[in-house]
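Render RiboL-PSP-HEPN domain-containing protein in 3D.
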Amino acid sequence: MSIENFANELPPVARLTNLENYLVEEDRTSPIDAFTRGIKEILSQGSEEFLQSSGYIGRLLVLAVVASAESYFRTVLSMAMELCPLSKANASEKTINLGGLLWHGHQRYSYSAFDNASFSSAQEIRKATREYISFNLDDSIFKIPLEEFDKVCQFRHGIVHGDGFLPGKNAVKLDIRQYDRPVRITIRYQQLQEVTAVVNTLVVLFNRQLFSEFCHRWAIGWRRRADWRPESEGESFSRIWAIFHSQEEWERRRDRAAINQAACLELVRNTYQLR
């Protein structure tokens, strides 16, 4: 008998077989709608009774909520960078992962920029937004939502890297009192609702403000460039609308009759006095 056998038995050999069995093709929709649908599906898995009886499902659902937000930021920044000539100029000196470029191809090259990026902290979101699309997150709007999102991400770190046990570094950042024994992050129904509300607030605010910024760029900044084509202004505005407008939310809005692309375009023209 070998010494190792006193610890535990030798495990069987395990391999992943056909990797394509793990993958399903999906079409990209607007980032905000993909996020909204993802959150709806996540919450449908977290009933009060189920989360009360399960010690780990709540933690997994928190990971899914944060992952949905990360996917939103990665996708919306990629699309924004592809669309906006000012963003392209701002990001022109950035390096791109070659493997990502080979995988995504020419048509989706911008996704390669964020293959190695993590959007699970306020600092990373601020940095990527500033460095790639030249958009600074105004503290008067984003300070509190980003701080609350950071709290969620501290818990996320413990769930991912500590099997749910809260690491000391994250506990100190959260200003949590010391316990006599290790503490495990426990997510019940109320905690899942709070986490989701915090993440949703940040994403929705971000989407609103970036949409407004891109309407401003369409009306002012893009028109000052030598590559501006007046005959394509309608097409370029439609692309902004396609990226940021939430069809999912529109279907639930009481004022949806007044919310349409033509009305928005008219308001932007009037706001910036375009003829």
